[in-house]
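Dear support,

I submitted the protein below through the web form. The confirmation email said the job was done, but the results page showed an empty box. After a refresh the structure appeared. I'm attaching both so you can tell me whether what I see now is the final result or a partial one.
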Amino acid sequence: IKKIAIIGKETCSTDKDIEKINNWANYNIPPISIKQKQIDISHLKALNTVSLAIKKLGVPISIFNAEKIGVISAIPTTIQTAFNSFKRTSYLEIVHGLTEISSDLKELSNKRWSSFDKITEDTAHGVLNNVIAGRVCNFFNFTGLSLNIDSDLNSTAVAIDYSRHALSNNELDIIFIITADSKYNSKKNKIENSTFYANILCLPSFAQSHGLKITDVLEGIIYGD
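What the results page shows now:
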């Protein structure tokens, strides 16, 4: 089994990191989609995390062949945006039902409904975790590979195993793996992807031939039960 090199240090993005970013147009995201929360925050964290990882790489990413750079996201869910959309749609049914009971209730319910997140062209994309890798590839012009791996607690391990084969078979030179700390918030009754990480992988021989610093080497993969 070939070893895999990690080049650069692990980078993370939290909610606070995202709140500090004022101009998402730099990531080719429509301002209205940010304002109306139609892009799941997981997408924003992924873009920011990969951007920071590239800066820490020490060399311009543009010097490498874009056709041999891939992105794998191992994110279990981006369910919050889906829930927001469902809430807006289902609540509208309640508003219609209250029309026959009281005009006051109708007015209050309409006002409540209008406060929910609006639906924009990014709504459908926002609820899909497999769009995360694609959005990153599109922005950074990586054309080698983009996919999401959802294998519950083994998502990261499967992503690393897939990367090992892709690198060893010379299908790709560099792979970005995006992962997250996914936890269930019992108070809010939802799964939250809190801290995001991006690891840049390649073969040790590739790193050495391009003068890239190897921060760690992966020799084995541990799967959970």
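Response: this is the final, complete result; the empty box was a page-load delay. Confidence is low (pLDDT under 50) at residues 123-128.
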